[in-house]
Design brief:
This protein is an alpha/beta fold. It has 5 domains: 9-102, Nucleic acid-binding proteins (OB fold (Dihydrolipoamide Acetyltransferase, E2P), Beta Barrel), CATH 2.40.50.140; 123-262, 3-Layer(aba) Sandwich (Rossmann fold), CATH 3.40.50.261; 267-295; 361-389; 400-434, no CATH class. It contains 12 helices and 13 strands. It has helices spanning 9-23, 61-64, 104-120, 148-160, 178-192, 216-224, 241-245, 253-260, 264-299, 303-346, 350-389, 391-396; strands spanning 27-38, 44-49, 54-59, 76-86, 91-101, 139-143, 166-170, 197-202, 229-233, 248-249, 401-404, 421-425, 430-434. Strand 2 and strand 3 (54-59) form a beta hairpin. Helix 4 runs parallel beside helix 8 (253-260) and helix 5 packs parallel to helix 6. The longest helix is centred in the last third of the chain and has 44 residues, at 303-346. The chain is elongated and about 160 Å long.
């Protein structure tokens, strides 16, 4: 940028904004809130000030939703913010990313460490938590007698079920001595064993005000107490270690009283509904029994009259049986006659059948003789053929069978050599010989 160049106001503000955002990282700024305004858009506008200066701040809706409390003028806070410039007006401001009450950082970290350690021990496991009694005979309240929370609890219990006795175990609920007194009150309630459920309650406040309920001694006393305990500490957004250690957590003291006490109107309504159901069932059973009695009374008949009815029915059945038997015999006789007539009509004359049998026998005899004659002639021809093919017949005509030393038949003189041993088979007997000479020119068929 040249020294003599002229910048527009927009360019100047943009350059200053870029310079601020690039040179100064996210940082924590502590101060007191003043001029706090919650816009309809959900954004928060306020100033942070101390004794010597103040700075404008904006916290956009997306970031403000992460804060579980609403700031007010005079609250001392610590804000994690980005230093920037609002270009349209050239206002130096902080864009707040997160905000907490002053001093809460260390306390909240201590809260998280204790919560993690006790949770690792299994102190918060749901398996060890006990259910609340549905109809407690007496309710104990562990709180300060001067606390507004006690008045809220007493009025709620009186409204819901004034017949339940209430026992107050007084203790301080704020300050350094509060954890020890709360533990003592829980132990006293356990020793006296006069209540079925205990309410540990306190009104809202800062994290410092509620710190007694983040004490490890209180958490262990809650788990050691043999009586189920409902924790109702602070407002809905307040969470303490006692809430995790108790058998049940309520968002407010009033809600704790409602959880522990059954509503008298609801109980009366349930009793009325049960009584109505019982009356309807009894009336239905009576009506059913009356109807059954009427039905049985109609079925009840004098024994003599029942015997007469049975005798008349038997006579009627005997008469029907006789008629049915006679009719069945007649029908079967008629069917038998018809079947005999059809059978006689279907059979041919016996003489004609006998003549047909004689003729068939004669034809069969003649055919058998012809087949035997043909078989005999064929057998004679086959026997004659076998005689001609019999080697012994050939040998009888003066021929011989010559075999070499290995027993193979010699058909060609070329297979022999002078000195070869041969075996000669004749029509009767045989001989062993040695070849003196081989003549390949001799031909038996000149």
């Amino acid at each position: 940028m040249l020294p003599d160049s002229v910048l527009t106001v927009s360019a100047l503000n943009r350059s200053v904004r870029d310079l601020l955002e690039s040179r100064i990282p996210l940082l924590w700024v502590g101060g007191e809130i003043s001029n706090f305004t919650a816009a309809r858009s959900g954004h928060w506008y306020f100033s942070l000030k101390d004794d010597g200066a103040q700075v404008r701040c904006v916290m956009f809706r997306s970031r403000g939703q992460l804060v579980d409390w609403v700031p007010r003028d005079g609250d001392r806070v610590e804000a994690r913010a980005l230093v920037t410039l609002y270009e349209p007006r050239g206002d130096f401001q902080l864009n707040v990313e997160f905000m907490r009450r002053a001093g809460q950082g260390q306390l909240y970290e201590a809260f998280l460490r204790l919560k993690a350690r006790l949770e690792a021990e299994g102190l918060f496991d749901t398996a060890v938590k006990r259910p609340l009694p549905p109809f407690p005979r007496a309710i104990g309240v562990v709180t300060s007698p001067a606390a507004a929370a006690l008045r809220d609890v007493l009025s709620t219990l009186a409204r819901r079920n004034p017949s339940i006795p209430i026992v107050v175990y007084p203790t301080t609920v704020q300050g350094e001595a509060a954890p020890g007194e709360i533990v003592a009150a829980l132990e006293r309630a356990a020793q006296r064993a006069e209540c079925d459920v205990l309410l540990l309650v306190r009104g809202g406040g800062s994290i410092e005000d509620l710190w007694a309920f983040n004490d490890e001694r209180v958490a262990r006393a809650l788990r050691a107490c043999p009586i189920p305990v409902v924790s109702g500490v602070g407002h809905e957004t307040d969470v303490t270690i006692a809430d995790f250690a108790a058998d049940c957590r309520a968002p407010t003291p009033t809600a704790a009283a409602e959880l522990a006490s059954p509503a008298r109107e609801a109980l009366l309504a349930r009793v009325s509904e049960a009584a109505a159901r019982l009356n309807r069932r009894l009336q239905r059973d009576l009506d059913t029994r009356a109807q059954l009695l009427d039905h049985l009374s109609r079925r009840l008949v004098h024994p003599g009259r029942r015997l007469e009815e049975r005798a008349a029915r038997i006579a009627h059945l005997a008469e029907r049986l006789g008629r049915a038997a006679a009719l069945g015999v007649e029908r079967r006789a008629l069917r038998l006659d018809r079947a005999g007539a059809r059978l006689r009509a279907a059979l041919p004359p016996v003489d004609a059948l006998a003549a047909r049998v004689d003729r068939a026998a004669q034809r069969l005899d003649a055919a058998s003789r012809r087949r035997l004659d043909l078989a005999d002639a064929r057998l004679a021809r086959l026997a004659q053929s076998l005689v001609h093919l019999d080697p012994r017949a050939v040998l009888a005509r003066g021929y011989a069978i010559v075999a070499d030393a290995q027993g193979a038949i010699v058909r060609d003189a070329a297979a022999l050599a002078p000195g070869s041993a041969i075996d000669i088979t004749l029509a009767r007997g045989g001989a062993a010989a040695t070849v003196d000479r081989v003549d390949l020119t001799r031909n038996p068929n000149p």
